[in-house]
Amino acid sequence: EGSKDAEPTPQQVQATYQQIEKEINVMMNKIAELEQESSEHSLVIKAFDKVEPTRRCFRMVGGVLVERTVAEVRPAIDGNLEKIQQATSELRKQLTKKTEQRKEFVAKYNLDQRQAAPAQPAQPSEGKAGGGSVLV
Predict the structure, then answer these.
(1) Residue 59 main-chain phi, psi, to 5 deg
(2) What is the pTM assigned to this prediction?
(3) CA gap 136, 133 in Å, rounded
(4) Residues 113, 115, 116, 118: is their CA dihedral positive or negative?
(5) Torsion sign over Cα 6, 7, 9, 14
(6) Which own/partner pairs from 112-115 qualify as long-range (CB within 8 Å, at least 24 positions apart)?
(7) Tens of pLDDT, residues 67-126
(8) Distance of alpha carbon 97 from alpha carbon 93, whole angstroms
(9) How many whole angstroms separate alpha carbon 14 and alpha carbon 12?
(10) pLDDT at res. 132
(11) Rounded distance, CA 37 to CA 29, Å?
(12) How far is the C-alpha of 41 from the C-alpha of 35, rounded, in Å?
């Protein structure tokens, strides 16, 4: 308990920051994956809108392709889409919290100087590019 009150070493701060960054990246990747699935479900629903409910369709269930009608499959696809959208929404909330945690961590340990350092060289290089065009 006494060690928790002590200031962490720079290595511990860096490791914690990297862990936060990793978690943010994982969440962003999962959100992108879920958005792709949502898009695919939406495409299927649009296709279902153009066909009769009695038309045959095939659906993968547990690795097995089964034959059903559009009317039988449509509710499951709608339900899956809703669940995917809920999961995406929840992940976005978690991402917002984690991003805020990162922001507070950066402020607490004055990491913004490290964060600003990579951004600052980009600005002068833009200026150099502009100056280069003037010289040409």
Answers:
(1) -135, 140
(2) 0.73
(3) 5
(4) positive
(5) positive
(6) none
(7) 999 999 999 999 999 999 999 999 999 999 999 999 999 988 888 544 433 333 333 333
(8) 6
(9) 5
(10) 34
(11) 13
(12) 10
Under DSSP, the state recorded for 118 is H
Q: What is the DSSP letter of 62?
A: T
Q: What's the mean per-residue pLDDT of the chain?
A: 83
CB atoms within 10 A of CB 110: 9
**20 neighbors 104 (Cβ within 8 angstroms):** no
Length in residues, the chain: 136
Beta-bridged to residue 65, according to DSSP, are 60
At 34, list the tokens. Answer: 């879920």
For tokens 């509710």, the residue is 75
β-pairing, 56-61 vs 64-69, is antiparallel
∠ CA 110-13-98, rounded to 5°:
80
Whether 51 contacts 70, CB under 8 Å: yes
How far apart CA 1 and CA 33 sit, in angstroms, is 40
